[in-house]
Amino acid sequence: GAVVSQHPSWVICKSGTSVKIECRSLDFQATTMFWYRQFPKQSLMLMATSNEGSKATYEQGVEKDKFLINHASLTLSTLTVTSAHPEDSSFYICSATILGTSGRGGETQYFGPGTRLLVL
Amino acid sequence: AQSVTQLGSHVSVSEGALVLLRCNYSSSVPPYLFWYVQYPNQGLQLLLKYTSAATLVKGINGFEAEFKKSETSFHLTKPSAHMSDAAEYFCAGGYQKVTFGIGTKLQVIP
CB contact, 8 Å: A119 with chain B? Predict the structure, then answer.
């Protein structure tokens, strides 16, 4: 149980184009979904937190106009990298917590397999 | 703000040897603590989680971690390393928002 999928698993695009990444909770409804970015040999950096039906909360230094997050349902969140540039190339990982968990913190995050983005 | 520190970005052990991956947290109030494993080009998988119910937490794949408040530590151990344990391990901690350590790459030598 608690499976999270991401699509696509990898994408190559030209500089200036936009790329959409989907994150789905397959067998549960998600209270919250998180988007992370991971550079080679580095840890995960939280980009934003999103809750269904409300605006995402972005971490300091993350451009919300560049990384658009839409959390349309309890099982789907999308991250759109707008006008992508080579420096946006990275491994993007989403995670989700299960609806109904306490909300007081400490909820287990279930991670997707990640999406590798390469911008040429 | 809490932070999580992993000591040793690379750890090598022989197959069958003890695995010890170190993690310390920095917080006046012990946060929730997690260990995740990441295999190449994959997302993270939860190994175990500390939520104050018990100081010794048993996880999957034979791993366990002990919470020591006096040392602000949450080290991950496994008595006998297996080749399949080779991966990157992340310690994480926090409350509503979780902070990840930089990761420790475990190499298992046959």
Answer: no
Residue B29 has pLDDT above 70, yes or no: no
CA distance A35 to A69: 9
Q: What is the largest CA-CA distance in chain B?
A: 41
Taking an 8 Å cut-off on Cβ atoms, the answer to whether B43 and A113 are in contact is yes
Of A73-87, A104-118, B59-73, give the lowest mean pLDDT range. Answer: A104-118
Q: What is the pLDDT of residue A80?
A: 97
Tokens matching residue A37: 């970015």
Rounded to a whole number, what is the largest CA-CA distance in chain A?
43
**Average per-residue pLDDT for chain B:** 90
Residues of B whose CB is below 8 A from A111: 36, 43-45
State both tokens at B60.
């999957």
Which pair of tokens denotes residue B80?
């006998």
Residues 6+ apart with CB under 8 A from B75: B20, B21, B22, B23, B65, B66
CA gap A101, B73 in Å, rounded = 26
The strand pairing partners of B63, in sequence order, are none
